[in-house]
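Possible regression after last week's pipeline update?

I re-ran a chain I had predicted before the update to compare outputs. Posting the input and the new output here so someone can diff against the archived version. Not blocking, just want to make sure nothing changed silently.
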Amino acid sequence: MNEREEDPLFLQVKSRDTVLIGDNEICKVLSFVGGARDPHAPTLFQVANVDTGEIKFVHGEEVKEIVCSWEQE
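New output (post-update):
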């Protein structure tokens, strides 16, 4: 069993990324809270809905896709 499982998508999300939450909600990632086992691994995200401006927290598993990734220069 040398096959390594792919890391979950939410581990690739960074602050300022635009992500798809659920089926049709596009949000901008404002910040994240690290997990208990690895404080650098995001598990809970604070996001702002780009259509409504609503700010809320979502679990990492709710991130379905990274729509646009913010690259730091």
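Follow-up from reviewer: compared with the archived run. The mean pLDDT is 87. Marking as no regression found.
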